[in-house]
Amino acid sequence: MTLLELADVTASYGPVQVLEGVSLSVPENGAVGILGANGAGKTTTLRAISGTVRASGRILFDGTDIRGMRPDRVAALGIAHVPEGRGTLGDLTVRENLRVGAYLRKDAKGVATDIDYCLDLFPNLQDRIRSNASALSGGEQQMLAVGRAIMSKPRLLLLDEASLGLAPSTAKDVYDAIRRLRTESGIAMVVVEQNANLAFSLVDSATVLETGRNVLTGTSAELRGMDEIRRAYLGG
Amino acid sequence: MGTFVQLVVDGLSTGSVYAAIALAIVLVNQATGLINFAQGGMAVLAAYVAWWLTNHGVPLVLAILASMAFSFVLGAVVERWLMRRFERGDPDTAVVVTIGLLTLITGISGWLWTYNNQQFPSLFPLDTVSLLGVSVSIRSIGTTLVIVVAMVLLQALFAGTKLGLALRAVAINPESAAFSGLPVGRLLMVGWGLAAAIGAVAGALVAPQLTLTPGMLDNALVYALAAVILGGLTSPVGVVVAAWLIGVLENLAAVYVPFIGFDLKVAVPFILIFVVLVVRPQGLFGRKTVVRV
Predict the structure, then answer these.
(1) CA–CA separation, B176 and B196 (whole Å)
(2) CA-CA distance, B18 to B16, in Å (whole number)?
(3) How would you class B203 by CB atoms within 10 Å of its CB: exposed for 0-12, middle for 13-18, buried for 19 or more?
(4) Does an H or E element contain A179, and which?
(5) Rounded to the nearest 10 degrees, what angle do helices A108-121 and A138-151 cross at?
(6) How far is residue A206 from each of residues A26, A33, A82, A190, A218, measured CA to CA in Å?
(7) Contact status, residue A202 vs residue A10, Cβ threshold 8 Å
(8) d(CA A221, CA A223)
(9) Over the Cα atoms of chain A, what is R_g?
(10) Distances in Å between the alpha carbon of B93 and those of B24, B34, B99?
């Protein structure tokens, strides 16, 4: 059963066309990676899904056409976007950030349980619960961003470069936690990641983008170690 | 002693009017990250609406409540159809737009109701009561109390409610807030609407003393901005305390420091602000923004 389906999606920033026909299919409970060099259109693909960039083509979520929908409406349908640069709300505390994530929920008890779950998933946040998000380290901010996203109980998580700017060991911690989240919750994921090894540790399949087009799609097992992957990252 | 107490209470009362405008400015700033210079002008327009209603036989309290409702809608409309075009752009441009809006609204008030002084009925009786053996005006006490209530409500809104949290989230990062499903546009309208409604309270409180004119709150706006800086942009309690401090200090200085007198008393709060900003740039009560790089 397909949860998210992108077919021939195009998008541009002003006169510059960034996506020239991207397709993507994410099954229920599945995790799909988007790989590619800088400027290949990975982030824009996620933004097209979450409604933060105007796109054409077909974007179906659970059978509903969400293309052109406002970002908050898309979020309300169950898509949580963890943007590049994390998007944590700096002047709010860690707990307040998590509560913002649960904005659309009415079940106070469930929210409290899920805050505990976030703190269990990311123990580093436990001691920082009253700190302003801006005072956290980069790794902690990334954990908070993921935590805030899952507070909305999404069916689909869009993860953009969760390892960006993190020390390798911290990036591994973040991905370990996300993998655990995937196993325990079954949330479907679209994962944009520069680090192919981290990506393949999480996703079942992936697509490689080059200048806004799919050039290669396959399962993690098929793609791992292929020359095209290396080429795509080196931009050659 | 009698003079002193009366000066302090009167200072609290004028300070309360600065405080109401300052609270409105803080609210808009918390919700949109902008300083709205038109806040005073919008409050005057609200006072005119209340005044016009009382002239048509509406009881004063009802007229003020109606002017608050009018202001809520005005604030929301201004945000939706004017400020939204500028919110994502350069903040300096947006500030200039609010200054233009101030001029526009003042002009509209003058055009509709002339620039002549109009008598505005007082919400409180003009009697005095005995306090600590000194007689002070009921109006001053009432004005101060109204602002205390407004301040407590606002602090509770921001610190303790989902709406307040959502308003703050949208102010910090609208795009990221939308990713959690926050209806950004509607929240911005609510923020501006609430601010304008609080401004309307200021208009109704000060109009009986100053008499109603289109430029009635121009001075108060300057003091309110001073209070916002002194108290810290992030703290409703802070700006109210700062506004009271300004009101009381300028009153006391005028009487007890002969060198200052009534001509120079406007300078007192600004000297105070200068000193505070040198020692504590985030304001007396503001939170320092800590940023990791």
Answers:
(1) 26
(2) 5
(3) buried
(4) helix A168-185
(5) 150
(6) 10, 4, 18, 9, 6
(7) no
(8) 6
(9) 17
(10) 20, 10, 10
Q: Could you tell me which residues of chain A have a Cβ less than 8 Å from any Cβ in chain B?
A: 50, 52, 70-72, 75-76, 80-83, 87-92, 96, 99-104, 132, 134-138, 148-149, 151-152
ipTM confidence: 0.91
Homologous superfamily (CATH) of A2-88+155-234 is P-loop containing nucleotide triphosphate hydrolases (3.40.50.300)
B138-174: pLDDT as tens digits:
888 898 899 889 888 888 988 889 999 999 899 888 8
Interface test with B, best of A47, A88, A89 (most B CBs within 10 A): A89
Give the integer Cα–Cα distance in Å for B14 and A174.
55
Q: Please indicate whether, in this complex, the C-beta atoms of B184 and A72 are within 8 angstroms of each other.
A: yes
pLDDT at residue B262 is higher than 80: no
Q: Are A205 and A33 in contact (CB under 8 A)?
A: yes
| Cβ atoms of A51 and A45 closer than 8 Å | no
Note the pLDDT tens digit of each residue in B201-249: 989 988 998 899 999 998 889 889 889 988 888 778 888 999 999 999 8
Chain A contact set for B290 (CB, 8 A): 132, 134-135
Q: Which of B162, B181, B234 sits opposite A72 (nearest CB)?
A: B181
Is 0.95 topped by the overall pTM? no
**A150 CA to chain B: closest CA distance, Å?**
10
A86: nearest CA partner in chain B: B176
Query: Token match 């990036």: residue?
Result: A171
Q: Is residue B222 within 8 Å of B101, Cβ to Cβ?
A: no
Q: Is the pLDDT of residue A15 over 90?
A: no
- Map tokens 């409406």 to a residue: A73
> Does position B183 have pLDDT exceeding 60, yes or no?
yes
**The three-state (H, E, C) secondary structure of B4-59, written as one string:** HHHHHHHHHHHHHHHHHHHHHHHHHHHHHCCCCCCHHHHHHHHHHHHHHHHHCCCC
Predicted confidence (pLDDT) per residue in A167-181, tens digit:
999 999 999 999 999
Tell me how long chain A is: 236
